[in-house]
């Protein structure tokens, strides 16, 4: 099981990193092409920043949006599309893999569901449509 987040919402007293430094690190990592989750992992593991929100007052994605570095499509949707593309590529080689075919259907229905949500909260343009043919271009 995943350990619970600490109750205290203040940054630890031993943390000597300033808010500006953290924001700078986040922007630098985003320019390198890291996703918000990967940025959080790097900050936690090599910079000692447990929770970015506790230190800066805003989450990683919000900081990226403010600096104009947010990804075009949300990270979770991007990962689902990436997974669907890899399963589809696998199915081209192994046509008889019925389980993979079934899993692809599940993944793609999840993509459609998440897309519907992101359109409703205006995180995606209303014209966005997931198509398996054009999907590989989205994640390239």
Characterization of the model:
The chain has about 140 residues and is mainly α. Helix content is about 65%, strand content about 0%. It has 7 helices and no strands. The protein is elongated. The mean pLDDT is about 95.
Largest sheet: none
Helix content: 55-70%
- The arrangement of helices and strands along the chain is HHHHHHH
Structural class of the helices, strands and pairings? mainly alpha
- Number of distinct beta strands: 0
- What is the count of DSSP helices, taking H or I runs of 4+ residues? 7
What is the straight-line distance between the termini? 33 Å
How much of the sequence lies in strands comes to: under 5%
Task: Report the principal-axis shape.
Answer: elongated
Mean pLDDT: 93
Low-confidence stretches: none
């Amino acid at each position: 099981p995943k350990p619970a987040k600490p109750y205290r919402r203040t940054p630890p007293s031993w943390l000597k990193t300033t808010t500006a430094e953290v924001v700078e690190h986040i922007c630098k990592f985003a320019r390198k092409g890291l996703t918000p989750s990967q940025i959080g992992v790097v900050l936690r593991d090599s910079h000692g920043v447990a929770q970015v929100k506790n230190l800066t007052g805003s989450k990683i994605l919000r900081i990226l949006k403010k600096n104009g570095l947010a990804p075009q499509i949300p990270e979770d949707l991007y990962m689902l599309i990436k997974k669907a593309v890899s399963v589809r590529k696998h199915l081209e080689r192994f046509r008889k893999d019925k389980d993979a075919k079934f899993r692809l259907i599940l993944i793609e229905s999840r993509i459609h569901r998440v897309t519907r949500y992101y359109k409703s909260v205006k995180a995606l343009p209303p014209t966005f449509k997931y198509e398996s043919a054009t999907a590989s271009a989205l994640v390239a």
